[in-house]
Amino acid sequence: MKNCTEFEMKIMDAVYGESEISEDCKSHLATCEACQSFYESLLELPAGTREEIAVDEWVVGEAVKAAMEITEKKNAFERRLFLLASLGLTGLGFALVLNGYVQLLRNLYMGIYLGGPLVLPIIIWKRQQRGRDHA
Amino acid sequence: MREEGELHEQQLIERARRGDSIAMSQLMRDNYALVYGYLLKVTRDQETAKDVTQEAMTRALIAIRKFRGESKFSSWLIQIAYHAYLDELRKWNKRTVHLEEEPADKGLTEEEVIRNEQMNQIQSALAEIPEPDRSIFILKHEQGYTYKELAILFHLKEGTIRSKLHYTIKKIQRKVRKPDEELY
């Protein structure tokens, strides 16, 4: 047999339009004072004043400005990092060639070309996980 | 040519992703009332609500590339606003919200005075309810979010949302006195 809490939750679902009120719930409601009281006071619970909210242009403007500044800083940092990494790798390549390590350089490139794609699914999966957390 | 305000939300999102500041502003303007309205309810302080709205909008615009459209943009924004609000709470290191001075009931009808009294009672009851229960109630009761949307928003099961909502309603009902239940 269902207790009042279960019926109250069903009443709540019906009031909020989540589901229709069932027949057993209706008959319980007709006889239970506590549930009737719950139902009535839920209907009477004011939903707050729905006053018109004016857009605060300053708040919106500052948010956009801050977001653009932070994104630009992040992008500039990433560009610098990319440039440094590229220069570093190119320099390393030249250093290896000049010191007679052509064979090692070739093996390194082969490793990157062959191994790189194997890491891609992991990177994509990790990005998707992060995206799901933000969605 | 269509006006900026008439652009579809999806188009605005796409443009905002590419760094278009006009689209960003329009998108935030369109959702301002929703975010600010929600934050005003939870913080009960206009200045704090505005600060957190700005913070939430900044975060949303930075992360807009990560929005993949799996949920409604407004729900995604509310989720960010909720987390920005929690961070703000942590920053202040307090668990209760600041209660704003209520305006005087001068010049109001009896019905409006009773309604204001009820609203104040609800607000005081809500101030004692922990998060996310408080936000769940506000978003359900005042903004009409579905259980499914709330479950996604708060990373909870629909059943848990229902239980939390029921618990909050019961708590509020105990606090809110009906006019005819006045003690003499």
Keywords:
heterodimer; A: 135 residues; 3 domains; 5 helices; 80% helix; B: 184 residues; mainly alpha; Rna Polymerase Sigma Factor, Chain: A; Arc Repressor Mutant, subunit A; 67% helix; globular
The DSSP helix count of chain A reads 5
Average per-residue pLDDT of chain A, rounded, comes to: 86
Low-confidence stretches of chain B at least 5 residues in length (pLDDT < 50)?
97-101
Whole-number average pLDDT of chain B?
81
What shape does the CA trace of chain A take?
A: elongated
Q: Encode the helix/strand succession of chain A as letters.
A: HHHHH
Give an account of the 3D structure.
- The complex is a heterodimer of chains A (135) and B (184).
- Chain A is mainly alpha-helical.
- Chain A is 80% helix and 0% strand.
- Chain A is elongated and about 95 Å long.
- The mean pLDDT of chain A is 86.
- By secondary structure, chain B is mainly α.
- Chain B has 2 domains: 101 residues, Orthogonal Bundle (Rna Polymerase Sigma Factor, Chain: A); 82 residues, Winged helix-like DNA-binding domain superfamily/Winged helix DNA-binding domain (Arc Repressor Mutant, subunit A), CATH 1.10.10.
- The interface between A and B is large, with 38 and 46 residues.
